[in-house]
Design goal:
Organism: Candidatus Blautia faecavium
Structural class: alpha+beta
Order of helices and strands: HHHHEHEEHHEHEHEEEHHEHEHEHHEE
Strand content: 5-15%
Strand order of the largest sheet: 8-7-6-9
Number of helices: 15
GO cellular component, one term: cytoplasm
Distance between the termini: 111 Å
Protein name: Transglutaminase-like superfamily
Helix content: 40-55%
Pfam family, one: Transglut_core
Number of strands: 13
Domain Transglutaminase-like: 175-262
């Protein structure tokens, strides 16, 4: 029995020695043939050195100058992957290791990163993540893909700074957060054209080419407001009765959250007839700056990938701030309000209702039955005119009316 036990021990020792020699030989052969030591480690079920170092690093909870709303919603593993992606993208590495590999975690970390950092305009804004995984290790090689050359990036960075300086010049001294949000909202509407192009998905399109789609508008608002110290969240979602996605923002003003949608604010074509072409009728559509949450949410649904702040404030709505919001309908009240605005030199009079019943009653009397003509007569008397051409605009979903003379 003792002899057999000795043979078994000897056999185990010889097997271990062979495996150690074979592993050393494999590393040597792979290195001689141009393979990396990390690849050899992978074949031997060993993590690459870079991954081991990543796991030892502390994960910063803040990034200077950025609010990172979505980062805070990630778990510890996802936050680590987020920071690793951020570092690699900032250094424009073609590929780099992540210390996570689960598809869902990588996707959430990447999507959160893109939403938090609009200034990373040079990385492809795409849903599909390109990565190489390893069957025996919880890590991966991440390949973000980049868009612009160094020369183009220099031009874009200059355009971003110019946009920021232009907004600063438009702000009054000691502007509060609402005024900052209002100026950024109007700046984007006035300086960006809604247009599909190669650069339309990022702030590069908004500020460099001055054309973008909703992603460029929303990223632009976030970029500018973040630099101005206003909490601004990038939101993606869907629009009722549309197969296309949409992007907008949530801003925090005086501790309350509000929607901000510069894309939909840039739509003068809703005005009836040729009114939009008249210089005196040029007006900013403020309906999508702090709209009533319940009205906005009837048509816009955010993605369910991340939770969003609760929305219920209305105090910063344009019509509430300017005494142009009515909870019930009274013909004389609307007429007096419109006359007051005309007396103050307005060529465009606008007001809204907080209930569907009041809006329907006003629409039926002023538009369907032509009560707007009584206001046109007042306008003619005010300016000594024998005739006047008038137009109207309706934003039915937001219960808003515009009268133009």
């Amino acid at each position: 029995m003792k002899k057999n036990k000795f043979l078994r021990v000897l056999l185990v020792l010889l097997t271990l020695a062979f495996l150690l020699f074979a592993g050393t030989w494999a590393v040597g052969r792979l290195s001689d043939e141009g393979f990396s030591l990390d690849t050899a480690r992978g074949l031997l079920n060993m993590e690459p050195r870079e991954v081991a170092e990543l796991r030892r690093q502390e994960v910063p909870q803040k990034d200077e100058g950025h609010q990172e709303y979505y980062f805070k919603l990630l778990d510890e593993e996802e936050q680590r992957g987020y920071r690793e992606m951020l570092n690699g993208i900032r250094e424009r590495k073609e590929e780099f290791y992540l210390s996570i590999s689960d598809d869902e975690k990588v996707d959430r970390a990447y999507h959160a990163l893109l939403k938090d950092h609009p200034e990373l305009y040079w990385v492809h804004n795409r849903e599909q993540v390109y990565k190489t995984t390893f069957s025996r290790g919880d890590y991966c090689l991440f390949s973000p893909g980049y868009t612009y050359t160094q020369e183009e990036m220099a031009e874009i960075d200059s355009a971003l700074e110019q946009a920021y300086q232009e907004v600063l010049s438009m702000l009054p001294e000691n502007a509060d957060d609402y005024e900052k949000a209002r100026v950024v909202y109007t700046y984007l509407i006035d300086s960006v054209e809604y247009e599909i192009s190669q650069d339309d998905q990022s702030i590069a399109g908004a500020f460099w080419k001055h054309s973008a789609v909703c992603a460029g508008y929303a990223g632009g608002a976030q970029y500018l407001l973040e630099r101005l110290g206003v909490i601004c969240i990038y939101v993606e979602g869907s629009v009722k009765d549309s197969t296309e996605g949409h992007a907008w923002n949530i801003v925090q003003l005086d501790g309350q959250y509000y929607y901000l949608d510069a894309t939909n604010g840039d739509q003068p074509e809703f005005l009836e007839g040729d009114a939009v072409t008249m210089v005196e009728h040029k007006t900013t559509i403020y309906d999508y700056l702090c709209p009533f949450p319940d009205e906005y949410e009837l048509n816009y649904t955010p993605s369910d990938e991340f939770d969003l702040p609760e929305m219920n404030a209305v105090d910063k709505n344009f019509y509430v701030l300017n005494q142009g919001c009515f909870s019930s309908y009274n013909w004389q009240e609307i007429y007096d309000y419109c006359c007051m605005r005309l007396n103050n030199g307005a060529a465009v009079v606008r007001f809204k209702f907080s209930t569907q019943e009041a809006f329907d009653a006003a629409y039926n009397e002023w538009i369907v039955n032509g009560s707007i003509q009584s206001l046109a007569q007042y306008y003619m008397q005010l300016y000594g005119l024998s005739q006047v051409e008038y137009h109207y605009g309706i934003l039915e979903d937001l219960k808003t009316m515009y009268f133009m003379f």
